[in-house]
Amino acid sequence: MMKNLSTGYTxxxxxxxxxxxxxxxxxxxxxxxxxxxxxxxxxxxxxxxKNALSTTEKxxxxxxxxxxxEYDETGKLSRRKKAFxxxxxxxxxxxxxxxxxxxxxxxxxxxx
Length: 112
Hints:
mainly alpha; 61% helix; single chain
């Protein structure tokens, strides 16, 4: 069982890249984002933390699950991530990677 770990700041104040990693992890493990964030803090070492904070997120590192987790958290996506999801959403649903979400489908707009 995981101990209650206080980070000393709120979710909104947490570093963006660590929040993104926590969202991906929470979606994959089907756990709360805060629990996923705490797991990251417990398991990550300083070198990995420094590397995570110094890198920028690239399209090649996006996953359907991760982008969906971000949308579930924020209710919106960047223009680039929205375009990415327009390309892959229906295929991901057909391949049962994710479940169809009518609201998200409408958010994406015209999918070809």
